[in-house]
User: Fold this.
Amino acid sequence: MNKTGNAAPWQDKLIEYVISHSGALISALVVVVIGFIVARWIGKLTDRWLTSKAMEPPVRMLLVRIARLLVFGMALVVALGTAGVDIMALVTVTGVAGIGIGLAMQGVLSNIMAGLTIIFTKPFRFGEYIEIAGVQGQVTSIELVSTTLLHADHSQVIIPNRKIVGEILHNYGHIRQLDLSVGVAYNTNISGALVIVRGVLTRNSRVLKEPAPVVGVTMLADSSINVAIKPWTAVADYGPAQAEIYQAIVEQFRANKIEIPFPQREVRMLGGAAS
Assistant:
């Protein structure tokens, strides 16, 4: 018998089933559509309520998704029962399949568990600058499976959540401290040079007033007296502030005739040939 002949009985049975259960199938479809609409409405209502409670965005998103899935899941169960499906048998099959899927997706499940840990323990929050697992950046997204960081070069770093939980985390928060240094000649009026540097920091709009910038002599090097300059800025201003501060210091030092020395070596020739 050809393939068409083999398929015909199945097609006939399918058509017969649809015709004989058309009322139940239409009812089930209506239940699914209504469940989808209600799930979206419940999700929006839940999101609005959690927003009024100042809930953290990752936690709010998780609870909204759970609310939608619960409502739609209940509607789907009702629809299947309306269509004549044996719910108990379906639950049994789903449970067995769930075990197999769980074993095959251990990595994903571990990421989800780690994501829940991050969301509820809050070792870092949206918008903070962190360093972990050898990478760093500003937190732009905290999902169940992964966390996304925005690097200084505007590239995205996506870290699986299981790589975060249990690791040493450096959380800078919403501000960062610059670590700058400039050298001046040994004959420089150090007090005057420090006043100039502090003036540059005061005039720069990116430098925060609190915490107060740290400025002081940090090293007596071979060719210069090194001055440490450590102001705080917002995370977004970290890169631009460094360039602006260095440029302003160079301009002010030149205007006030303060020398920024370069490394020098004095070489003496001994034992030269007699004339």
Residues 123-173 form a domain with the SH3 type barrels. fold (CATH 2.30.30.60). The chain has seven helices and ten strands. Strands lie at 129-132, 135-142, 146-150, 156-160, 170-173, 175-177, 180-184, 214-220, 225-230, 232-234. The CA atoms of residues 42 and 241 lie 46 Å apart.
